[in-house]
User: Fold this.
Amino acid sequence: MHRAQAARAVILSAGSINSPQLLQLSGIGDPALLSRFSIQVRHAAAAVGQNLQDHLGINYVYRSRVPTLNNALYPLRGKIKAGIEYLLSRRGPLSMSVNQAGGFIRSSPDKPVPDLQLYFNPASYTSTRTRGRRLMNPDAFPGFLLSFNSCRPTSRGQLAIRSADPDMPPAIFPNYLSTEPDLEEVRIGARLLRRIAATPPLAALIESELQPGTQLQTDEELLQDFRQRAGSVFHPVGTCAMGNDPGRAVVDARLRVHGIAALRVVDASIFPSLTSGNINAPVTMVAERAAAMILQDEADA
Assistant:
């Protein structure tokens, strides 16, 4: 057993899953949940682990008439060549982003801001049979992906510890697609991807739509396909949300946990609502701002 004691403050930066988990394990959370696992309640904070939000996306997979990154990276010799090229020059396929094109669009002219994010990936992974992400081994045939996700989903989930054991992962209830606006954006996004694929520049390159497949045509069929194949875009936020009301938020405007002296949370869990796009830059700015506030508070002490 190791013990570490802070002289001034504790800054928790474990992310939108592990930050609320650690707070709950430490006795900061919903008393009903903590008592279930015989954890002493140090501070009642029902909002810990609530308000979970995430971007949920799907890939439409196309077999291409022309070579794609699959041709370069599927063969073992291609992987070796790409690896050597990257190590020696930081160039080649491995120096590229996963998605080579994308955009933010309004699904209809009456939308005040973009509500869908699009992605284009010049590789595909439909035949790989591994756990987790399948980026390491693309398909043996030329293929590419078109993808979308809703920018600001209205569904809200939650997470909670399942044990007092810190090695036990928490139970996560994302509650995806639990609102009608989220369902409608799935229907719109699915139709939009097919409209893009049918434009002459792309249609000339497409041999066939592999997933979901042209046999699925109705809104309900495409929605059911989305339910079966969609996955997280890895942008979870909100589980230690910032706000003025301690009953509905976990941290205040200076990222201090309500009711706990000298404890801050600094990561994506403090977002009250999900940003429209990727969260990397916003998280970096949260960290920059938090560092400035911490230094200011130290100077004022």
Remarks:
- The radius of gyration is 23 Å.
- The chain has two domains: 10-53+236-300, 56-156+183-232.
